Every structure is written in structure tokens, then in C-alpha cells.
TrEMBL record:
InterPro entries in the record: CHP03980_redox-disulphide (IPR023883), ScdA-like_N_sf (IPR038062)
PANTHER family xrefs: BSL7085 PROTEIN (PTHR39341), DUF1858 DOMAIN-CONTAINING PROTEIN (PTHR39341:SF1)
Origin species: Leptospira ilyithenensis
Name of the protein: DUF1858 domain-containing protein
Transmembrane residue ranges: none
């Protein structure tokens, strides 16, 4: 894998780290109904994997969606 195609998001990073490395990461979390409303807010210190486990979201699917943000940036 080259540096340009290397995954930038991973399941061990915190939600806060994910949001900090790409401005649209929060939109991806919201699209999976994570943190998009007051009764299902997510904690920025939890890892992506912990959030997925807590809400029943497939972690690999969410990571793929997050990493697609960088593919969109390259176009």
C-alpha cells in the first residue's frame, strides 16, 4: 500500500482524533446515527471500535466510510 492509499482512520483511534484529522468525519458518524442527536451522543474519548460495539455498527464498514473521505479529497 502506498502512503496515499494507506488507511488514515483505524478502530483504535478515538472519535476526537478522527474528527480532528478530517473535517467531514463527524458527518460520517452522523450518517451511521452516531452522535447525531442529543440522546445518542458519542464520547470523543471513546475509540471508534468502542462506539461501534456500543451501538451495533460494523466497525470495518464505518472505517471504510471514513477512509473514503480521503479518496474523495484526491479526486
Amino acid at each position: 500500500m502506498t502512503e496515499s492509499t494507506a488507511a488514515r482512520f483505524h478502530k483504535e483511534m478515538t472519535v476526537g482524533e478522527a474528527i480532528a484529522i478530517h473535517p467531514e468525519a463527524g458527518l460520517v458518524f452522523s450518517s451511521y446515527h452516531l452522535g447525531g442527536c442529543s440522546h445518542c451522543s458519542i464520547n470523543e474519548v471513546e475509540t471508534i471500535e468502542q462506539v461501534c460495539m456500543g451501538y451495533g455498527v460494523e466497525v470495518d464498514t464505518l472505517i471504510d466510510s471514513l477512509n473514503n473521505l480521503f479518496a474523495d479529497d484526491e479526486e
